[in-house]
Amino acid sequence: MNKTSQYQFTIIVPVYDEQDNMLRLESELSSFLKIAKMKSCVLFVNDGSKDNSGQLLQEVCMRHDDMFYISFKQNRGLSAALKAGIDYTNSEYVGYIDADLQTSPEDFNLLLEYAPEYALAMGIRAGRKDSFVKKLSSKIANSFRRMMTNDTAQDTGCPLKVIRTDYAKRIPLFTGMHRFIPALIQLQEGGTMKQIPVRHFPRIAGKSKYHLWNRLVGPFNDCFAYRWMRKRYINYSVVSTNL
Description:
This protein is of the alpha/beta class. It has 8 helices and 7 strands. It has helices spanning 22-35, 53-63, 78-87, 108-112, 132-149, 165-168, 181-186, 212-232, and strands at residues 9-15, 40-46, 67-71, 93-96, 120-125, 161-164, 193-198.
C-alpha cells in the first residue's frame, strides 16, 4: 500500500543539488507537520542530484515516520520531478514547495483552509525578496503567459500550491508543465482556483537553478506548446457506470 494514502495531504519537495538546505528543510517541514490543519506527510523527489542531497534525504526520512522519498536515476528537471511526486501520491490533496525555502511550509495552512472549496489553492509571493532582474523577468513572463493562457494567475511562479489530487493526476506531462499548473487545472471541469498572499524570503543557502534563458525565453516557447495542447485537450465527465 502506498504510505501517502494514510494522509490527507502530501507535500512534494523536488530536490536537485540542495545539500546545504537539507537540515533546514528537515527542521521547517517537521515543525509544520506538527501544526498542519490536515494530517500531512512529505515526499521528497531527488531529481538526480550530483551532490550529497540523495544520501541526506534518505537519512532525513529514516528519522521521520512522515517523510518519504523517491530518487531519479538522472536529472530530469522540475516538471518531471513534480509530476513523479503527483504520480506517487495517494492522499486527497497534494502540495508543492521548493527546496530553497523562499516560501514557508507554515503558509500551507493558509492554503489548506480553502482546499475543500477549490481544485487549486496557490500562493502569491508578497514583498518578493529577489533581485531586480529576477523580479522583472518574472513579471514579463507572467504577463505574457496570462495573455496566452487566460489563466488569471497572478504569480504562477510561486511554488506554494495545494491541489486536489484527482485534478493533479490529470495534468499532462511536458517540459515546462510546472509553469502552467493554474491553466492546466482550469482546463478541467470544475477547475476552480483561489489565490492567497504568502510570505517570501531570500535564498540563504545553495544556488538558484534558474537564469535568464529558463526564466524568460524558455517560458515564452512553452506558452506556444500549451496553446497547441489546449486545443487538443481531452475533457469528459462520466455520468454512470456498472463497474
